[in-house]
Amino acid sequence: MTSVPLTTDTVEALVRRQLGQALGGARGMVEAALPTLTFTVVWLVDRNLELALGASVGVAVIELAARIVQRQTVKFCANALVGIAIGWFFVHLAASRGGSADDQALAYFVPGLLYNTGYAVAISLTCLIGWPLVGFMIGSVTGDPTAWHGDRQVVRLCTRLTWLLVLPCAVRTLVQGPIWLAGHSGTLSVDTAIAALGILKIVMGWPLQLAALAAMSWLLGRNHTPLQVVGPVSSAGGQG
Predict the structure, then answer these.
(1) pLDDT value at residue 237
(2) In contact, 212 and 164? CB cutoff 8 Å
């Protein structure tokens, strides 16, 4: 059985702690933003796609090395590297299909758009079918993955929190998608589209996530649902 710290005695406290860990704190969010910022700036200054991609990889590797030296989790840096690798794949896919340098630069932003769209749709479905994602976050800690679903108050709270998780991804897709399409179709200049996408990816990255987290914290602050109602919790000393 999974143990829960004694200080986590309500659903709200547990969700708040789990979300904080998932975002990686301020450093984790900055580490996620820097590679994209580097790619955008280098491309706009030099219009050298390989240099821009290489520079973004270099920044992510430096972040990774710093984490290793400090013996801290490398999860967020590794995620950034995976994101760059996927972006690089889409760039070379565009090149293999005869795309211009402009097309290839725009392709770098396709994975992010696909991820946000897919995430928003998939997580929305968990709410629509009555099994919100945040509930499983609770279940993963309490030791019973589905016990929370037996309490309507908990399900209602988890549904609202899950919709708040969906919101940033949905907003990113709705705002950035049309800009990408405009750049790809020629309605908007490629440089303008890439500059806008790079800036928006950062502005609508961790700041938007923090705004959603603030809304979730406000919602959590209004409730005090005992953790015991959603599953087994270990006794003092962490013995399960």
Answers:
(1) 36
(2) yes
Residues paired with 10 in a beta bridge: 226
How many Å separate Cα 168 from the centre of its chain?
9
Smallest CA-to-CA distance from 136 within 236, 29, 22, 56 is with 22
Q: Reduce the secondary structure of the chain to three states and give it as a string.
A: CCCCCCCCCEHHHHHHHHHHHHHCHHHHHHHHHHHHHHHHHHHHHHCCHHHHHHHHHHHHHHHHHHHHHCCCCCHHHHHHHHHHHHHHHHHHHHHHCCCCHHHHHHHCCHHHHHHHHHHHHHHHHHHHCCCCHHHHHHHHHHCCCCHHHHCHHHHHHHHHHHHHHHHHHHHHHHHHHHHHHHHHHCCCCHHHHHHHHHHHHHHCCHHHHHHHHHHHHHHHHCCCCEHHHHCCCCCCCCCC
From 137, 142, 139, select the one nearest 232 (Cα to Cα).
142
pLDDT on residue 220: 73
The model's pLDDT over 156-206, given as tens digits with 9 standing for 90+, comes to 888 998 999 899 999 999 999 999 999 999 899 988 998 899 888 878 877
pTM of this structure:
0.71
Residue 209 phi, psi dihedral angles, 5° rounding: -65, -40
Sorted by sequence, the CB contacts under 8 Å of residue 79 that are 6+ apart come out as 32
Structure-token pair, residue 194: 């890439």
Amino acid (one-letter) located at 57: V
